[in-house]
Amino acid sequence: MNCRVLGMDDPVEGKWLIAYIVKEGDLTRSQLSAFLSENLPQAMVPRSFVFLDEIPLTVNGKLDRAKLPKLELIEEDTQQNYVAPRSPIEERLAQIFEELLKVKRVSIYDNFFTWEATLYW
Predict the structure, then answer these.
(1) Residue 89: partners with Cβ closer than 8 Å, 6 or more residues away
(2) Are 20 and 50 a contacting pair, CB within 8 Å?
(3) Contacts with 29 (C-beta within 8 Å, 6 or more apart), sequence order
(4) CB neighbour list of residue 34: distance below 8 Å, 6 or more residues apart
(5) DSSP-based three-state secondary structure for 43
(6) Along the 121 residues of the chain, how does pLDDT read in single tens digits?
(7) How far is Cα 37 from Cα 41, in angstroms, rounded to an integer?
(8) Is 54 exposed, middle or buried (0-12, 13-18, 19+ CB in 10 A)?
(9) Are 95 and 77 in contact (CB under 8 A)?
(10) Which residues contact 112 (CB under 8 A, 6 or more apart)?
């Protein structure tokens, strides 16, 4: 599997990891996260996984960070199955998630503890 893991820095949340992966087979974000959580210390498990067709490289063979997808676009892509809150309680919970995770919207089926697109701004 071809991948690159980058450290991101947020003034509020501190440092966290994002993995850019060339997807092979039917591997899902949840499966990958579960596997890494069982085999690595928690600090080494990326918070976010972005699947790409290929890793963008410079002519020197190094990672071309400028060609990586913009984080705002990744957030939209990961919420394809968005379902809006249906009650005042769900609306308030979604609002809390949005504030804590710094995202534009949260589906009623999103899991706070397994959020795959956290802290995109």
Answers:
(1) none
(2) yes
(3) 49, 51, 116
(4) none
(5) helix
(6) 788 998 877 665 667 788 898 888 887 777 888 888 899 988 888 888 888 888 999 999 999 988 888 665 444 444 456 778 899 998 998 888 888 777 777 777 776 665 544 333 3
(7) 7
(8) exposed
(9) no
(10) 97, 100, 101
Q: DSSP string of 100-121?
A: HHT-S---TT--GGG-SSTT--
Instruction: Give the pair of three-digit tokens for residue 119.
Output: 């802290």
CB 63 within 8 A of CB 55: yes
In the numeric block, the tokens 């890793």 are attached to 55
Six token digits for residue 67: 């060609």
